[in-house]
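User: Study the fold:
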Amino acid sequence: MRLSRWLGMLLMCAVPGCGSDQGFEVVPVTGVVTLDDQPLAEADVTAIPTHTTPGLGGAARTNEQGQFQLFHARGERGLPPGDYKLTVSLRKRKDGSVPPVNDPTPPIESDAVETLPPMFSDPTASTLTATIVTEVKPLDIKLKSSK
């Protein structure tokens, strides 16, 4: 049992971007998501690092005014400066409710379905990007529906 715990800790520290001394600082990242110029409430915003951006990225959920604050995967407020692919997802159940943040149910098993198109919600198809710099500058994510 002790050996497996030690091996698990060793593997966690061997993964790039993991461990207590990351070698990068994070800067606060806040913003607003709108859909057709209206605040998008209860949407999940995910930032995925690209190119040479360090770290594991981050995520947030928007409030009723569409505002969000990204949290790094390590739990810190903010992200390392760099380039990111963004996704905005709004999954809803038949009754209109949204699954709770960090719902452990895999999407394939969930009764909630994606309400936004893949160009916003799918990490492989998203066209949304952002560059985070050291000075704090809000991200305005303006989505347009295909009416």
Remarks:
- The CA atoms of residues 36 and 147 lie 10 Å apart.
- The chain is about 10% helix and 30% strand.
- The helical segments are 2-14, 118-121.
